Amino acid sequence: MRLDHVSYAVGPDGMDATVATITEALGVERVKGGIHPRFGTTNAIIPLENCQYFEIVQVLDHPSADKAPFGQAVRNRSQVGGGWMGWCVAVDELSPFEERLGRKAVPGNRKFPDGQELTWEQIGIKGLIADPQVPYLLRWDDGTDHLHPSRAYEKDGLSPEARLTRLSIAGSRERVADWLGSPDADPFDDVDVEWVAPSGTPGLMSVTFQTPKGEVTL
């Protein structure tokens, strides 16, 4: 189990303006990403160290977005101004979570211009919608390591220049530990989790990065 990525929903200014604000703050370049046809969303990527990445995601005017929980989650967050939507944990096996949640994981995919396709399965978006403090869970399909978004700079001969160091979550560490089926809600060696008492809706409040501009919290 490891922290895979954090998801930020586009605000009212749209994708380009949201991405420009974030990349300027971090002092890094973005990668365009692509469309998630099953979810009715599209994204931009900021690769990070430690096989992690920062996803900036936008809902599309597409029927899939109305049906898929992920599309619904992105739309819901964007409609209230955008911002941090959630965090995602990668696991080796999703079946324990399928059994506990009583439903199957759903497939996801993103095609690249050269015809390659990144595929995965995920579960927990409905839980995220109901209780935004909990992460959703993902398993990358075998043979896709070279396409992981954290490696998106490699085609240009570059490496990530930013590292995710801390999550600030309004909520209950006991609730999240139970959701993860873990004795600890912070089972990550390379990322600190700060728990704050929610004054309103629980959820991911901020993320801190070590960047070319120093420590930056968004």
Summarize the structure.
The protein has 218 residues and is an alpha+beta fold.
Tell me about this structure:
The chain is an alpha+beta fold and 218 residues long. It contains 6 helices and 12 strands. It has a single domain, classed as 2,3-Dihydroxybiphenyl 1,2-Dioxygenase, domain 1 (Roll), CATH 3.10.180.10. Helix content is 22%, strand content 36%. An 8-stranded mixed β-sheet has the order 2-3-4-1-5-8-7-6. A 4-stranded mixed β-sheet has the order 10-9-11-12, with no helix packed on it. Strand 9, helix 6 and strand 10 form a beta-alpha-beta unit. The protein is globular. The two termini are 24 Å apart.
Topology diagram in text:
Elements: E1 2-9, H1 15-26, E2 35-36, E3 41-48, E4 52-59, H2 63-67, H3 69-79, E5 83-90, H4 95-101, E6 106-111, E7 117-123, H5 125-130, E8 136-140, E9 163-170, H6 173-180, E10 192-196, E11 203-211, E12 214-217
Parallel strand pairs: 1-4, 5-8, 9-10
Antiparallel strand pairs: 1-5, 2-3, 3-4, 6-7, 7-8, 9-11, 11-12
Instruction: Name the helicity range.
Output: 10-25%
Counting helices, strands and paired strands, the structural category is alpha+beta
Average residue-wise pLDDT: 92
Note the run of SSEs as H and E.
EHEEEHHEHEEHEEHEEE
Low-confidence stretches: none
Q: Nearest-angstrom radius of gyration?
A: 16 Å
CATH H level, superfamily name = 2,3-Dihydroxybiphenyl 1,2-Dioxygenase, domain 1
Strand content bin: 35-45%
> How many domains is the backbone divided into?
1
| Count of alpha and pi helical runs | 6
Q: Fill in the CATH topology.
A: 2,3-Dihydroxybiphenyl 1,2-Dioxygenase, domain 1
Q: At CATH's second level, what is the architecture? A: Roll
Beta-strand segment tally: 12
The dominant shape is globular
What strand line-up does the widest sheet have?
Answer: 2-3-4-1-5-8-7-6
Quick one: biggest sheet? 8 strands, mixed
CATH class: Alpha Beta
Separation, N- and C-terminal Cα atoms: 24 Å
